[in-house]
Design a protein that fits this description.
Layout (H helix, E strand, L loop, with lengths): L15 H35 L4 H4 L2 E9 L8 E4 L1 H13 L2 E11 L5 E12 L5 E14 L2 E9 L2 H13 L7
Parallel strand pairs: 1-6
Antiparallel strand pairs: 1-2, 3-4, 4-5, 5-6
Length: about 180
């Protein structure tokens, strides 16, 4: 390999090992840029969700996506297939007064078959501003070309979700239909 810009016939040679290291360094830098861009977008979409607008987050799901949430006696339980079902899930998040925060994001795989791990914390306050719910979550998502096709949520304490459901029912907060 010759390095451009040295002068006629005086180009410096770059060894194959050095070229490989430069290529690997470029790949790592690109992956980190992709992770930062995805993290910024996800945080922006969650801020919109916290403000009552689920549409930016919903747009990140493929039309036939599946969101799997732990089973139990609560409005979020089970498998939510398709954007309509995921939209109901997100509307219930908003109706419950939940506020979420993306803490970390890890990416693996190529853009056509990417895996995302998201550390997501959420909480809810009652009308008096007293915290009635707090939990920590890891979201495992599979994406194709920037659209989530499968998401599974794993909570630190699923009993807290059932307790939140009880409190919401006491307050008359109905599940979205």
């Amino acid at each position: 390999m010759r390095r451009a810009g040295i002068g006629p016939g005086r180009g410096a040679r770059v060894s194959p090992a050095a070229a490989a290291m430069l290529g690997a360094g470029g790949a790592v830098a690109c992956r980190e840029l992709l992770r930062r861009a995805a993290l910024a977008k996800l945080r922006r979409d969650v801020r919109a969700l916290n403000d009552g607008d689920h549409r930016p987050l919903l747009a990140g799901y493929a039309p036939t996506a599946t969101l799997r949430f732990n089973d139990g006696e609560h409005r979020w339980a089970g498998e939510h297939v398709g954007r309509d079902a995921i939209e109901r899930f997100l509307r219930n998040f908003i109706a419950a007064g939940l506020q979420g925060e993306v803490r970390e994001l890890a990416l693996a795989g190529p853009p056509w078959r990417m895996t995302l791990l998201v550390r997501f914390d959420d909480r809810a306050l009652d009308a008096a501003g007293v915290e009635i719910y707090r939990n920590r979550t890891v979201l495992l998502a599979r994406a194709r070309w920037g659209r989530i096709v499968l998401q599974e949520d794993f909570y630190e304490d699923t009993g807290r979700i059932i307790e939140l459901e009880r409190r919401l029912s006491e307050r008359g907060v109905a599940a979205a239909r």
